[in-house]
Amino acid sequence: MPLTIRCLAGRVANRAQSWPELIAKNSLEQNGNKCILQLTQRYSVHSVVWTESSKNAENQLDMKQRTQLAKSLILSVLTACSLMSARAAIQSYTVSFGPASGVTTSGTGSGSAVYDDVGHLLTLQASWSGLTGNTTVSHIHLPTATPFTGTAGVVITPGTLVGFPAGVTSGSYSNVFDMTLAATYPAAFITANGGTPAGAEAAVANAFAQGRAYWNIHTSFAGSGEINGFLTAVPEPSSLALVGLGLAGVATRLWSKKRAKIS
């Protein structure tokens, strides 16, 4: 039976990316039998496949060859994962809206924030329903003193999120923000972070990653915010690469034990 190990690496984009295909291939031949290690990278997914051309190949590989095959497997995975990490970073976050602190409401909702640190774009999407009051304004607040708790000032964007619907108890929202523009941030926030939009963008990215940013929806019922939710990072596939390596190690050990029993 072929042994397949899937190693997810790099970051998932919110749109298709034209990443080149990388194929690393090592072959080992003995007595006409071939063991092939093949690593294919396409759209942030790596597949490591070990296969045997015949069942007898397993019995004919000595310890040195098995060790070399295992080393090749690990090296190929590490190479692919490092290539993926060097590419554009797309950080994705989810938001679960619930009653703001001290507010009693049946309002709920969900949203997402996707930050592209190469394109310098922030894509926000949300939907909500059941608000007690009509929407007035909405913002991203940061940074709180402690991750996933507390309050902070308005950062994105001054006044309200551009295009956010007012006067409704349910609805949806979607917009893309240019993080290089000074208009995206309050002037005081730019001043406090190096005096440039680039400094402000870096501070926002850090707050997002640290769990110190929340999305607030204000209404006529609760002027300081009726529902809100912290931005929670979506686990990156690259963090699962170690799982793939672990599986590779387990597979090698099982193979060795089986070989020892046969011998």
What would CATH call the architecture of the largest domain? Sandwich
Q: Classify the helix fraction into a percent range.
A: 25-40%
The number of helical runs is: 5
What would you report as the Rg, rounded to the nearest angstrom? 25 Å
CATH class of the largest domain: Mainly Beta
Q: Which keywords apply here?
A:
263 residues; alpha+beta; Immunoglobulin-like; 2 domains; four-stranded antiparallel β-sheet; 5 helices; 26% helix; globular; disordered N terminus
In short:
The chain is an alpha+beta fold. It has five helices and 13 strands. It has helices spanning 56-60, 63-85, 187-192, 197-209, 241-262, and strands at residues 3-8, 22-30, 33-42, 45-52, 90-99, 108-116, 121-129, 135-141, 154-156, 171-178, 214-219, 227-230, 232-233.
Protein described:
A hairpin with a 2-residue loop joins strand 3 and strand 4. The strands form 2 sheets. Strands 5, 6, 7, 8, 9, 10, 11, 12 and 13 form a 9-stranded antiparallel sheet that branches. The chain folds into 2 domains: 3-87 and 238-262, no CATH class; 90-230, Immunoglobulin-like. It has helices at residues 56-60, 63-85, 187-192, 197-209, 241-262; strands at residues 3-8, 22-30, 33-42, 45-52, 90-99, 108-116, 121-129, 135-141, 154-156, 171-178, 214-219, 227-230, 232-233. It has 263 residues and is α+β, with helices and mostly antiparallel strands. The protein is globular and about 55 Å long. It is built from 5 helices and 13 strands.
